[in-house]
Design a protein that fits this description.
The protein is an alpha/beta fold. It is built from 13 helices and nine strands. The strands form two sheets. It has a six-stranded parallel sheet with strand order 1-9-6-4-2-3, with helices on both faces. Strands 5-8-7 form a three-stranded mixed sheet. Helix 3 crosses helix 4. This is Iron-containing alcohol dehydrogenase.
């Protein structure tokens, strides 16, 4: 039987979450519920697609006044967000409609923030520094991975910082999330793979997070660690992502696979949006900055090595996670088998196996460890003491491709 610790539970979610093929038909009603003046924040390549044209047509038919902002880049430089907020204020936007990948959704959250609260954006870097409500955001993801449509965090690039910076606040949770797997059908295989494996990392890190002491009489942190309400959700996410992510990368037009991966990514977002993430994410941020590789590529590459190092501390939880990933009885699962299965998923979907393959030299590992140590909020949720030596151990294994022999089978 699983242990039954006395865990607290916290969920912060959009007031409305809709999932399924055709769910985007709800958008006129949902958006109109927040006002008639709409700023649509959209990935630039989506502006000319039939899906976006249909959404704009439906909103127009509903009598909504929509202006589009598409100056979105993957790194989200601060200047584009400040410019987007100026457009929102000029349009007197009452609601922001976000359509796109994780960058577009994060951009929409931060534009909605700056449209109400005076910048600079750096005022809000960190946790719980947003002073009040933002313009309501209706989030419509077109990739299955980030979970940004249901989370309280957005990540931005600041030229004055070595790493990307997070802004975390319950006020950044979108007002509504509409997840329509139809919108993911055109995603390139690499985007599907790297966003999908990042969703599996979200589920894994949520499920293996350290429980944090919470004082109910004081303001809560945004991320609360291991969580009684999110544990089953994280496992449900892993159940869908484990078998279906390789299937959808192999067969991009498989509608069943698209549905299951989109649902898994949504569930993983619900889970980590309350618990937080830990070691894979803390280490990926400097790796991504050095190599300019996709976020999900880095977190996915690191996942088997992080789980391998964590086996001594949370073996039962990793085994349970693996049972969900493989769809096998818990009695047949083990932490070693989980690590091997995750490494196998990475191979199947094209995630590089080592840091050396993405251009990281061994001489860079100490610098990466030192930069990762700056992600104190993430490291606080790790189930082990996140020392420099631990980070160097993970990095050394990931550079050499050195999983425990039993995990490499």
């Amino acid at each position: 039987m699983p242990e039954l610790p006395d865990l607290p539970g916290t969920l912060r979610l959009p007031a409305r979450v809709h999932f399924g093929y055709g769910a985007r038909a709800q958008l006129p009603e949902i958006v109109a519920g927040h006002g008639t003046r709409v700023l649509a924040v959209v990935d630039p390549f989506l502006e000319t697609t039939p899906h976006f044209a249909a959404v704009l047509g439906a909103l127009g038919t509903a009598g909504l006044d929509v202006r589009t902002y598409s100056e979105i880049t993957p790194e989200l430089p601060v200047g584009t967000l400040t410019a987007g907020a100026a457009v929102a204020r000029d349009h007197r936007a009452e609601v922001v409609l976000a359509i796109g990948g994780g960058s577009a959704l994060d951009a929409a959250k931060l534009i909605a923030l700056l449209a109400v609260h005076d910048g600079p954006l750096a005022r809000f870097y960190g946790e719980n520094l947003v002073p009040g409500p933002v313009v309501p955001v209706v989030a419509v993801p077109t990739t299955a991975g980030t979970g940004s449509e249901v989370t309280p965090v957005a990540v931005v690039s600041d030229p004055d910082r070595e790493l990307k910076v997070g802004i975390s606040s319950p006020f950044l949770v979108p007002a509504a999330a509409v997840v329509d797997p139809e919108l993911t059908l055109g995603a390139p295989a690499s985007v599907t793979a790297f966003s999908g494996i990042d969703a599996l990392v979200h589920a894994a890190e949520s499920y293996t997070a350290r429980p944090l002491p919470l004082g109910w009489s004081a303001p809560l942190p945004v991320f609360t660690g291991r969580n009684a309400l999110t544990e089953p959700i994280a496992l449900q996410a892993a159940e869908r992502l484990g078998p279906w992510l390789p299937a959808v990368v192999r067969s991009p037009g498989d509608r069943d696979a698209r549905r299951e991966v989109a649902l898994g990514a949504l569930l993983a977002g619900i889970a980590f949006g309350s618990t937080g993430t830990h070691l894979c994410h803390a280490i990926q941020y400097p790796i991504g900055a050095l190599t300019k590789t996709p976020h999900g590529l880095g977190t996915g590459l690191l996942l088997p090595y992080v789980l391998d190092v964590l086996r001594a501390e949370v073996a039962e939880r990793i085994a349970r996670l693996g049972a969900a990933v493989e769809g096998i009885p818990e009695r047949d699962a083990s932490a070693e088998r989980t690590v091997a299965r995750v490494a196998g998923i990475n191979r199947a979907i094209g995630v590089p196996a080592t840091l050396a393959e993405i251009g990281i030299g061994r001489d860079q590992l100490p610098q990466i460890a030192d930069l990762a140590l700056k992600s104190a909020r993430l490291l606080a949720i790790a189930p082990v003491q996140p020392t420099r030596e631990l980070l160097l151990d993970i990095l050394g294994r990931a550079h050499a491709g050195a999983l425990d022999d039993r995990s490499a089978a």
